[in-house]
Amino acid sequence: MKLLKHIFILLLALAPVFAIAQDEEAISFVAKVSKKKLGLNERLRVDFEMNKDGDNFQSPNFEGFTVVGGPNQSVSHSWFNGKRNFSKTYSYFLAPKQMGTFTINQATIEIDGTVYKTSPITIKVTKAIDIPENPNDPDYILKENIHLVAEVSKTNPYLNEPITVVYKLYVAPKAGISNFRETESPKFNGFWSQNIDIKGIRPQNGTYDGEEYRYVVLRKAVLFPQKTGKLEIEPLSLDLTIDVPTNQRDIFGRRINNQAHRTITANTRTINVKPLPQQGKPVDFTGAVGEFDFNVTATKTELNATEALQAKIEVSGKGNLKLFELPGLKTPSALEVYDPEHEENIRTNLAGMQGKISDSYTIVPQYKGKFPIPPVTFSYFDLKTETYKVLSSKDIVINVLEGPVYADADNNLPTNNNQKQAVVLNDNQFAFIKTKTNLKPIQQETFFNTTAFWMSLITPLLAIPLALLYRRKRDQRSADVVGNRLRKADRLAKKYLSEAKKALGQKEAFYIALEKALHNYLKGRLNIETTDLSKEKISLLLEQKQVDNNTIKDFLKLLENCELARYTPMTQVAMEQDYNKASSTISNIDKQIR
């Protein structure tokens, strides 16, 4: 006990030390610039930010620049989830003295007795640029601060080699966009393309032309060029709502922005597609490009005649899996082969297509013996080595144990390309032909004036009034809107009750189906949309239809159980009770409703 007491006192003594260490680890002091490349006639803003107040701040000497403003000091306090956030910033505005490459050296500050330093930042100053009289002009903001870019992974691919195109919208920190919509989609003429789903548009930090920007990814697509030469990717166009600053401010001192609509178009990209080399090209090459494995398998190699087996030709790996044909299977004519069943298990992402494709053949041997399936070859173009590769399967011998003997079993077996089979002879090839017969004359009967004659004449005449009656009943049924709705609701209620019964034991699926059954029943019986009604309103409507209070309470209790099931566990017994209660309650309402 004394030992535990000493350990507890030691931990209490060290707790402040740990807290201070954690605070020290969380301290940050960084330098940020408005841009890393500017013209000789532009201005540069430099911010030195810290997340804890300090003393003895020392700015760098800003060699190569003239300080035209600052230091301006700003402090920000905020609370989030019970945690206090602090930020303090020293800001300077600089004008370059001459063209060249300059360095914003380190600034220093002392926080809690420790000196912190920022990292140096390199700035490139170019010749003077044309600046309009009004920098807040929407066209200037669009030109200088907003960029729609099509980024292509490779501009000189081989035929059928996958490339990716990603459309990004870059926005400078000082610019703002309220909204945007797509006005023209990109066109990929000459490419097999597949778009990659983007789960939400999420702003990210990045750089554009050496400067800090925010950007969002708008589109991603994988392209497989289908012809050689120069192919153009037609651009994406957007309609933007740009925030344009004004000289007006609101009562809180914040600048008021106007909005302007402008159209921005991504750059057109030209792709120079190279043809696949002719040297070393296999005769059976069908256009496969990538990196693949090849395999031919049979479900069994020993069986009896008229039994079936499956032979599968499978290609797996990475490449243009959807854009080439698999080699065929050649078998002896003694094996009956059915058309293959094609299967694909492919996923497409920015790396291209990955997965496998296969053709499954059903084979039924007709005769006893051993029948070899010759090797199958598959060729593809390997992008890593830029050479053709040929893969070959192993021999497969089908051993048929029982069945009729093949006529040429001891000879070389032909393949089933011509689909011809040898004739099998047996002892009963020719049957005995009788020379004496016992023929009797056939009695000729006339069709006219027979029962069949009169039935065929009268039946169409009787069908006319029946067809008219059926059509009238059908029109009446179609015109009965309320009745149709009631019948539809009853069908849906029965359907969802059946689904609920099948889902017993699966809480979520059971109560979703049960709730749908209850709502569809009321929808038909009361001719209302129950999803928009409260329980009080449903109770009032059922009372007006002369349904007793106990039945109403049972119905509302079922609805309440469906809602509670989303948040609370339910047992198998409770679900069975709710299902039986729903069936009996619906039956009671049917009997009482007026």
TrEMBL record:
Residue ranges of the TM segments: 452-470
Presence of keyword Membrane: yes
Transmembrane among keywords: yes
Coiled coil (UniProt feature): none
Keywords of this entry: Membrane, Signal, Transmembrane, Transmembrane helix
Signal peptide: 1-21
UniProt superkingdom: Bacteria
InterPro entries named in the record: BatD
Name by which UniProt lists this protein: BatD family protein
Originating organism: Mesoflavibacter profundi
